## 1
Amino acid sequence: ADYIRQSILEPNAFLAPVCPNSGCLPNIMPQDYGQRLTEDQLRTVVAFLLTQRAAADAVSTSLPPTLPPAVG
């Protein structure tokens, strides 16, 4: 919970070493959630995020093959 809270309040505190398209860039997430959210709202967001499963667990089916572009 502390890690999530700090990541919301200080988004640049922990940057992943690798991102899908390039290096992970700082300042992508707004830096002012500490001013935008009340303490109660922040607790609610953290509690919600703690209930989420990892992306690998959430995706249990494979995607269909790519379809050709529509002609028309």
## 2
Amino acid sequence: MYEKTFKYSNYRLMMIGIIITLIAIALVAFFGLKLLKSIIIFKAVFKIISLVFALLFIVLIISSYYIIKDANDFRKNFANENNLFVLVDSKTLDVISAFELENKTYSIAEDIVYINNSFNKYEFSNMNDDYYKIVLIKTDALDYINDIEITELDTKLNGQELKKILENNSSIEEIKKILDNEKKYAKIADMEMTDSQLKDYLFSYVITETFNPKNINILLSNIKSDNILIYENTAFFKSIKFVPNILIKDLTKTDDKIIFSKDNNNTEK
């Protein structure tokens, strides 16, 4: 009896042990499969993430190549190719003045109408082939300009003053108010300029100041804020939008050369 009971007890303990073992194996298998599944999912996700980063890296390399190529092309050719500079009123987007670099000439009234129509209807797409670049400068860009020495008038004008004059239909009367000096105003009278000619004359100084290498940070800031638009808007200019303002002042290194000289002030209308 004792022996039978002992044997039964051993059997019961053995079965309990087997059951516990099976439960343990089942639990290990269950959690093992869960872990394996997680690893497989992780590996799959990791592969996807790695692939995305690899593609982004390739895109970055290709984009960097085109940006650098475009920047070098602009640096080398901008001063030597035919470019059109257009000044527009920031509020109305009407063309105030236009200057063609290659011919050193300002646009006449009929051309201004054509340029104005081209900008407002086509954003210069119908004129891009005629110029290396079309540079559109809004009058709001003048807010960044400090005092400019206007040599022929023996005076200085800051960006805000230039903006008032250039946006005013009666620019001669406006500059007379700002100068508040009969002697200086007499010099304008001696030059025998019309309102539009005065605007062209002052616009030449705006271009000179804007594209002076010492003001490269102002130029790029204006491009970033859309106060200056470049047509055709290629890779280099698109990339400027993503450059932090703090880095803009050190973004480019240029030759100490001004692409538009004040000697060009004496141009034909």
